[in-house]
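Dear colleague,

As promised, here are the two records you asked about, laid out in our usual form so they can be pasted straight into your sheet.

NAME FIELD: protein one
SEQUENCE, THEN STRUCTURE:
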Amino acid sequence: MKTLFLSLLSICALVAAEPAKAPAEGRAGRLLEASGVKAEFLIKPDRHVALTFLDAAGKPMARGERSVVVKVDGKDLALEPKPEGFLSKEPLAAKEPAPIVVQVRTTADAKPTNFRLTLNTANCGGCKHQEYACSCDH
């Protein structure tokens, strides 16, 4: 009886747990989250990159003093500042897969926070997001 109760309790705990790093509601990009930085990295249909900073509720927020460097396959991607983040000036090259490094600084003199992902715009069969933004555990 005790084993049955513990098993049911464990199942309830697993069902109640939220998936880690799920994209913010209504968003199709990759959620970047670490040490005070929360942002969405999105590759638009025209292959331009948009980086939008998010508040705790997942809503867009002001960029503030933050600065961002994006490197795709070792080359810097030119970014244009926007009120809530950054937008690339040029579309991404067609080469896939390619490594992407996103470096975010909260202030000009702050230590950067680095995020690494792979440029892959194929659709995931599980979560239906593009592979770079996949929220599955495969």
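NAME FIELD: protein two
SEQUENCE, THEN STRUCTURE:
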Amino acid sequence: MSAKNLTPTQMVQSMYAAYAAGNMEMLKKTLSDDILWIYHGTEEIHHASIYKGKDGVMQFFNDVNDHIEYLDFQPKQFIAEGNVVVVLGNEKQKIKRNNEVLEQEWVQIYTVKQELITKMEEFSNTAYAVKVHIK
């Protein structure tokens, strides 16, 4: 990916595009080998954890897919300063174990170094999400 001279925002957008296309191999190419992927939340949200490395990020997506079905996922706004990109978005998902629908807004913070994503942290209203997950 480094031959393209992508900005940090473009790198994050290319990761989203790979995910939207279901191209996990391309998504992995946007990640550093030692990436830290953090989804903040409580144990009731099965994919709330800290994942390390590319394999860890792939485990995050497997954990997500095991427990929820995305009905909609929209990164809406990208705010960049230096090598940090903050993404504001929203999603609608169905919880597989109880068929409840969760609609929420989220914030994801990416750090990009040498045209690779080295860190991602996601924040959302986990108190609300837990209520939907445990119904």
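A couple of things worth noting about protein two: The chain has four helices and six strands. The mean pLDDT is 92.

Best,
R.
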